[in-house]
């Protein structure tokens, strides 16, 4: 189990320590459950009343909340960020793979950096380049001529198709598929003719991709995922999509082909984006939104109807079905008023 003293933790966080720096911290817990040897945090002053009963060995708070704490305190500018950094320091997640498993297949011409690990039954095909410290989990597949940067990690059963490029310090969760064919077909007399997808997927540094997310390769140009992007589980990113730096995409989001999303956007879960349009930098789209038109101004955008009781929803649905009739009646009244004037 990882552990750290409060004095060491304060130094790592750049925090102001009030209390006993020799106290050892081995875990993080919620304020209502934390006990001896554990640290907690207060990210919102509206929960300040719970500090008095807190049994944690230490609390991370803003300066404004320090006077309400009973024991050891670390004063930080952003307690939630301090929590994230502390969690990294105490993280006990095992490596995706250790050493080179005897059951792994690695083509003779693969370029292995120093300290590369490949798990059991993984397949690394010809022409692949694995950077220093890369970890390839059990059962994963890395196709011909793919490149995976230094210290990037693929958990079990990840599929990376041919020619895909993944940058440094990326994390790809189990079941993700990177570089599968985009949905490209041409109609021909009632049948479909497949269009080979000739582009690839280029992923920058520090990108994280959730479990069972699919990122399609481009039809002609490449699908592009910029540095610092985070993508949740079970998302679909279609061919030739471009996602800008540090954009966050929550689970079950669907992005259609040739969509361009800017930098520092926040996309709520289960949102749907039409293709062949652009979303500018700094846009927040709330969950379950349907984005059908380009967004050229930063801001918060929403659509969809919040949940109601079944009785209320049936009334709402009945009224929605009458909107066209209501519109026609309103136009008729407006025209009559114009005549009367």
TrEMBL record:
Gene Ontology biological-process annotations: lipid A biosynthetic process
Keyword Nucleotidyltransferase: no
Domain of life: Bacteria
UDP-3-O-[3-hydroxymyristoyl] glucosamine N-acyltransferase non-repeat region domain residues: 23-89
GO molecular function terms noted in the UniProt entry: N-acyltransferase activity; UDP-3-O-[(3R)-3-hydroxyacyl]-glucosamine N-acyltransferase activity
EC id: 2.3.1.191
Gene3D superfamilies: 1.20.5.170, Hexapeptide repeat proteins (2.160.10.10), MurE/MurF, N-terminal domain (3.40.1390.10)
Free-text function comment from the UniProt entry: Catalyzes the N-acylation of UDP-3-O-acylglucosamine using 3-hydroxyacyl-ACP as the acyl donor. Is involved in the biosynthesis of lipid A, a phosphorylated glycolipid that anchors the lipopolysaccharide to the outer membrane of the cell.
Protein name: UDP-3-O-acylglucosamine N-acyltransferase
Organism of provenance: Veronia nyctiphanis
